[in-house]
Amino acid sequence: MALSTPPRALHRAWPGWRHLPRDSRDTLFQLAVIGWTILPHYAHLAPWCMALTALMLFWRAHLAVTNAPLPSRWAVAGVLMVAAALTLWSERTLFGKEAGVTMLVVLMALKTLELRARRDAMVVFFLGFFLVLTNFLYSQSLATAVAMLLSVWGLLTALVLAHMPVGKPPLRQAGALAARAAALGAPLMVALFLLFPRIGPLWGMPQDAAGKTGLSGTMQMGAMAEIANDDEVAFRIRFDGRVPPPEAMYFRGPVLTRFDGREWTRQPGANTMTPRLRSELQLLGQPLRYEMTLEPSRLALLPLLELTPDRSDAAPQLEGINAWLRGDLQWQTERPVAERLRFQASAWPMHRHGPRQMTLALREHVALPPDHNPRTLEWAAALRRRTDLAQADPRTLVAAVLRHLRDGDYLYTLEPGSYGKNAVDEFWFDRKLGFCEHFAASLVVVLRAMDVPSRVVTGYQGTDPTPVDGYYIVRQSNAHAWAEYWQPGEGWVRVDPTATVSPNRIIRGASLLPRQGLMAGALGSVSPQLLARVRSALELANNRWNQWVMNYSRGQQFKLLQSLGVQAPTWQDLALALISLLCAGSLAAAGWALWDRHRQDPWQRLQRRIQQRLALLKVPVQPHEPPRTRAQRVRQHLGLAGEALALELEALDRSRYGQSGRPGLARGWWKRFAALAAATGGR
After folding, report:
1. Distances 158 to 25, 64, 129, 180 between C-alpha atoms, Å
2. Fewest CB atoms within 10 Å of the CB: 3, 338, 522, 638?
3. 342, β-bridge pairs
4. What is the pLDDT of residue 62?
5. Could you give the dihedral angle defined by the CA atoms of residues 209, 213, 217 and 221, in that order, rounded to the nearest 10 degrees?
6. Which 3 state secondary structure label does DSSP give 462?
7. Quick check: helix, strand or coil at residue 96?
8. What is the percent of the chain where pLDDT is above 70?
9. Cα–Cα distance between 354 and 493 in angstroms, integer?
10. CA 303 – CA 332 distance, rounded (Å)
11. 261 CB contacts (<8 Å, ≥6 apart)?
């Protein structure tokens, strides 16, 4: 006995797209659009929600194909109660963004099981438009915008089909009409985008920074290696004028002073830049003017180029968020950077900061926890007791430690493995495998053991080698850790032990390459140049999107008004420009409607013309009669002389009410009809 499904059974289960009844075809198309709109939520919503939604959509598709009855309202209500209970269990609430989006997705899928009337379809359409908006609560990227543009087009196409009740119009025809309708509304959309006021919490959608990777306010051995596997963009930077070499591109992040033996944390007392600290800051050489586009992060700081001071001509001018320079030269913000920021600033790569003479505050920078890393502390003490280093200054001691790293067969790697309680001891004497934080933290521990004030600085170092659209890209994989030590008479001095072990990482700004995904790895193995071009094209598109759309802010709106001749634009000017543009558009639309008032439904106009022709032939017809009825009347009154005319009318009836559902006629039909009418006695 054959186990395969008979071909006839398969045909009954799926007759083919072209042979589906119109209701089934339109329902399947609508379900596909809904599924496409819901799909981006898979990374944000609970697995049960996506599984339940997919099950309901497939259930509704099966009902559409088999023409089976819809479930009862009690069954739908039962599923709704289960979904509400699961939402309360997984989100701990029925309110808020996550719970609200979860319930909206479930309600959308459930509503498809209630498509009994046209009003139900209207509810599904407008729920779909609202669901499109929820995707931007999680991401406002170019990819999300393109995906949701397709969703809107699909929903508009389904809406057009719902307003074409006669025949079976093809999807291509409905899609073209939906595209034309969207194109007519595009100018209004552009006007609102350009001139509608940017109201902070309403315009800038909140982003969840907690789930993002990136720098942290603390550091443990191995944390930076995890960040270095993330290829996401951290920020983009463009220089006005000369571009600094990669070894000078240090972007300062959290400065870590306190060490408990396992974790490095920031110093709480360095929140403000006091007059004394400001007097110790000395800027040397010429500044670098740059523009930065910072992606959202989970930290309340700005990783600016070292050193960006808080002078009025150098500090970043931000919209919607306050930032200030801390005493340890971190740029602190009032809250985590949850929205993309674009600003200009100036930096002095050559500078001096910190006290020139020993102070009591510097003693905190030599503190070490007891009972941790005893072998490293003993080694540092032995190094300090050497005859040639007994009276050496910190710079000489640092040089001696760096020589040990260079000559000690240490390896810079992304996979150093996990370390135990005495992590520095393991790294310094046993394994000698580490990432940048292993070298920086171990160097600081050794220097502190020799009574040299020092600290760990984290941030980013280097960029992609080739700029995209003028912007150098700094990725999370460029996350880096280095050290600062205090030198009498100079202050804090940067030292990067990674440059000793892996000069290529610093001099060329080239981070270690993380493992590539399946597709990227396959494409890279076949054609590395093609992979690089594809990546560059995507980066260019994303950068243009960010600069022209996502970073179009209130300042750009005012600049637009200035370019139009407004000297000192205000909110009132912006509102007046928007109202004036909308009024002008409304008047233009009213004028076009007045000019086009004679236009009617092409089918109705054609029917009226046929009625007039048949009246000349003395064939009485009514306005409401379809072409097939008129064909019968032609045969009754004209006999064989009108047979060709009757056949044309029947062909017209089939083209209108048949499978194609075409509302008009083929080209040349009216000429043939007029010729037949003239041949039978009409003019």
Report:
1. 11, 16, 12, 14
2. 3
3. 293
4. 87
5. 160
6. coil
7. coil
8. 83
9. 9
10. 9
11. 369, 371, 372, 373, 421
pLDDT tier at 18 (50, 70, 90 boundaries)?
low
Residue in 677, 682, 664 with CA at minimum distance from that of residue 601: 664
For tokens 């571009």, the residue is: 243
Q: Are strands 479-487 and 472-475 parallel, antiparallel or unpaired?
A: unpaired
What letter represents residue 122's amino acid?
Answer: M
Residue the block writes with tokens 């400001």: 278
- Residue 432 in tokens: 């000698």
Ranges of each domain in the chain: 11-195, 218-507, 525-550, 553-595, 602-679
**Position 593 pLDDT exceeds 80:** no
pLDDT above 90 covers a percentage of the chain that reads: 21
pLDDT the model gives residue 672: 62
In our burial notation (b when 16+ CB lie closer than 10 A, e otherwise), range 406-429 reads eeeebebebebeebeebbbbbbbe
CA distances from 577 to 188, 561, 591 (A): 13, 9, 21
Whether the predicted model's global pTM rises above the 0.85 cut: no
**DSSP letters of 322-373?**
-EEE-TTS-EEESS---S-EEEEEEE-SEEEBS-SS--GGGGGGG---TTS-
- Under 8 Å CB-to-CB from 339, ≥6 apart: which residues? 204, 207, 296, 320, 321
Which candidate, 173, 193, 174, places its Cα nearest to that of 185? Answer: 193
The rounded distance, in Å, linking the Cα atoms of 381 and 450 is: 6
Cis link prior to 149 (omega < 30° from 0)?
no
Residues 6+ apart with CB under 8 A from 56: 79, 109, 110, 112, 113
Q: List active site positions.
A: 436, 480, 496
Q: Which residue has the higher pLDDT, 531 or 171?
A: 171
Question: Which pairs from 127-132 meet CB under 8 Å and 24+ separation?
Answer: 128/33, 128/34, 128/37, 128/155, 129/155, 130/104, 131/34, 131/37, 131/38, 131/104, 131/105, 132/37
Total length of the chain:
683
Q: How many helices (H) and strands (E) does the chain have?
A: 25, 18
pLDDT reported for residue 377: 93
Question: Would you state the pLDDT for residue 1?
Answer: 37
Q: 489-504 burial string, b = 16+ CB within 10 Å, else e?
A: eebbbebbbbbbbbee
Contact (CB, 8 A) for 129 and 198: no
Confidence grade of residue 349 (pLDDT, cut at 50, 70, 90): very high
- Burial 253-288, CB ≥16 within 10 A → b, else e: bbbbbbbeeeebebbeebeebeeebeebbebeeebb
Cα–Cα nearest to 424, from 284, 259, 243: 259
Helix segments in 387-507, DSSP class H: 394-407, 423-425, 436-449, 498-501, 503-507
At 404, the pLDDT band (50, 70, 90 cuts) reads: very high
Question: Are 381 and 313 within 8 A, CB to CB?
Answer: no
Output the six-digit token pair for 575: 């509102």
Do 284 and 351 form a contact (C-beta atoms < 8 A)?
A: yes
Residues 6+ apart with CB under 8 A from 62: 68
Across the chain, mean pLDDT equals 81
In this prediction, residue 488 carries a pLDDT of 93
The distance from CA 610 to its chain's CA centroid, rounded to whole angstroms, is 56
Contact present, 423 and 375 (Cβ < 8 Å): no
How far is it, in rounded angstroms, from Cα 339 to Cα 294? Answer: 9
Structural tokens at position 377 = 């502390």
Rounded Cα–Cα distance for residues 167 and 172 (Å): 15
Q: In whole angstroms, what is the distance from residue 256 CA to residue 336 CA?
A: 18
Q: Residue 464's pLDDT is what?
A: 86
